[in-house]
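Task: sequence design from structure.
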């Protein structure tokens, strides 16, 4: 099965689990999904790539933040086997946004494991959003 067919099956499983119709990736391979009240997760797939990427903005630095404590929390959360469940945190210096991201190898996923991974990612993003700032 090619990656696009797999992603189609993954979205069907997400729809079944959520009980709601979901948008599909657009021409650019991206789709944003709302999780909970305030978390938006972007799923991205490039052409026939064997990877699907998940990312979410979990916070933004402002002039009021002292960078050192925020950077310390970012680094502490990035420890392997820690609170990020396989994802990683980074700082987009152009926008000062903190980004949680994770790449999943499509061939290693079933619709069920994809749903679990996406749900875990959303929970992790929400936790990071609440903890970082």
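Answer:
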């Amino acid at each position: 099965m090619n990656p696009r067919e797999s992603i189609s099956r993954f979205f069907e499983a997400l729809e079944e689990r959520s009980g709601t119709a979901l948008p599909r990736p657009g021409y650019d391979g991206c789709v944003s999904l709302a999780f909970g009240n305030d978390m938006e997760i972007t799923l991205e797939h490039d052409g026939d790539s064997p990877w699907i990427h998940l990312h979410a903005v979990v916070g933004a630095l402002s002039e009021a933040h002292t960078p050192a404590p925020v950077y310390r929390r970012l680094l502490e959360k990035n420890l392997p086997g820690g609170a990020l469940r396989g994802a990683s945190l980074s700082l987009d210096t152009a926008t000062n946004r903190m980004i949680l991201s994770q790449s999943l190898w499509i061939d290693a996923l079933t619709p069920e494991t994809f749903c679990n991974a996406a749900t875990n990612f959303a929970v992790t993003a929400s936790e990071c959003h609440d903890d970082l700032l």
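The helical segments are 3-18, 67-77, 111-132.
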